[in-house]
Amino acid sequence: MVKRGQFEAVYPPSAKISFNDVNDGSDGADGITWFSSNALNYGIYRTPGPWISPTYQQLKFQWDTGIIINPGIHYQNSYVDIQGGGLRVTSGNVGIGTTTPGEKLSVNGNIRSKEVKVEAENWPDYVFMPNYQLPTLTQIEEQIKLKGHLPDMPSAKDVELNGIALGEMNKLLLKKVEELTLHLISQNKTITTLNSENELLKMQHKQNESQISEIINRIKNLEKNQ
Prior knowledge:
The chain is of the alpha+beta class. It has two domains: about 5-65, no CATH class; about 125-225, no CATH class.
């Protein structure tokens, strides 16, 4: 029999350790710890505090120099399965395929997802405001000749060294699309005006041809009558 707060060594071993009832009203930490001046920094134990909302007691694994979970790789179920409410990382960085994560999530490899949601601010709808200074196509051409890329956009070298931030890049791309849209609208207005002027010139040309034809006919008639 395993008594509360004790370990029973029997054969075959039952491998059971029992601690105080989680709902017994105690608020001390129970568990297995290794000797240290701060023993709760090295062990597996129940967190202190009452077994009530909003904190509740939890099972805590702590080892100040790191914890390794290795389920092996040779069998079908050789993985770590986290169930319940999911996985929550409240501090530090997470690395997948890397031992030196520099961001909250660093992945040395490919990521496959059905959707990625990126939060962004200062979305470039301001391009359509009346006071926005739209760069001319001549200015854009000069920038391309000078630097080899569009204004505001990173160079190929910058991207190779630092990568791209998806949220910022999406804003820049949308800004360029909106600027291009304004140029297309302006060009369309110009083309529409030119088409109207061209139609007017065609009408005038026809009228001129008709008048010239009439003059020629009159001259011919005059020559016949002489």
